[in-house]
Amino acid sequence: HKPTRGWIPTSGVVPACRSLDTISIFSLNAGDACVVLAAMVGTDPEDPYSRPVKGHGFDFGSVTRFSLGIPRDKDLKFFGNAETEALYAKAVEHAKYLGAECVEVNLSPFLEAAKLLYDGPWVAERYAAIKNFFDSNESCLMSVTRSIIGSGKHWSAADAFLCQYRLAVLQAQCNVVWGMVDVIMVPTAGTIYKIDEVEKDPIILNSNLGYYTNFINLLDYCAIAVPFGKQGNEIPFGVTFFAPAHQDLPLLHLASKWLGGEEMRATTENHRRPDAMAALPNGQFQIAVCGAHMSDLPLNWQLTSRGGRLVRTTMTSQEYRLFALPGGDIHRPGLVHVEQGGTNIAVEIWELPDTELGSFMEQVPFPLAIGTIKLVDGSTVKGFLCDYVATSEAEDISRFTSWRSYVDSLKEQQLSSPLRP
Question: How many CB atoms lie within 10 A of CB 372?
Answer without folding.
Answer: 11
